[in-house]
Amino acid sequence: MAGKSPGSAGSTQAGEGGRHATERGRKTLEGLSINLATTRQQWGFRDAVEGCLRHGIRAIAPWRDQLAAIGVAEAARIVRDEGLRVTGLCRGGFFPAADAAGRQAAIDDNHRAIEDAAALGADCLVLVTGGLPPGSRDLAGARTMVADGVAAILPLARAARVPLALEPLHPMYAADRSCLNTLAQALDLCDALDPARTGAIGIAFDVYHCWWDPQLEAQLLRAGPQRLLAHHICDWLVPTRDLLTDRGMMGDGVIDLKGVRRIVEAAGFSGPQEVEIFSAGNWWKKSGDEVLEVCVERFLELCRSGHAVASPP
Ligand code: ZN
User: Fold this and answer.
1) In order of start, what are the domains of the chain with their CATH numbers?
2) Which residues make beta-bridge pairs with 203?
């Protein structure tokens, strides 16, 4: 942003992007948030915010490394000055470790993440819980470590008014990223730690991880507005060529995004849909403005149920 006027995106398509930005500048897009991983290869925090604003997008979800690069205080100032909604901070979690010192280090790191989320006024802190400790085959033990870790950070999260959003990940990540793999499993943990459904803990529902779940509708309805804290979107490509970095743009895969959104809203969540696309072979190679332009088009065409978007509680 420094030294650059809005519209000089550093993109090779600045003229094209500028024209569309002018057309769109008249209206703020309701209901669309951009997870900044989607343009992480193109833009840091400051440029990503400027890019979103050019395309009429006023909700974002940054990652902690992006905050660290600019400084949390400066990121929070930009959020405040621009009046942005932060639909989540990515991410805390990764609780399992081989020894007690490792588990305590994870808890300490999560405490810092809660403070960062509070500074941003984020709707939630997204938790990717972690998988097996190195060398371990004890999946049940890892899941116990996750439950213990989340329980340990919940008091600070409550005090800071930062809801914790457990994000169940597709089971292909059970070993290395998340041994929390289904909506039912995540909601069971929420019920164990917060039986009163206070809103202090819930789930981040990502279509990429959960679209295949036969219990999708039942579990989203079970979650309800107290537990549904975030709705991440992208698409599942056939074939998927990389387990981590081959997510599709909405409309390029097989997920019924409108149908899923209808269930999410029936469950009581009408907050923004957050586009989160890791795409080393495709979208990370395009200009940030082109990515956002397609995000907006596909969102408007394929993802909305037709209902209004609610403000944060
Ligand atoms: Zn996600």
Assistant:
1) 28-303 (3.20.20.150)
2) 166, 228
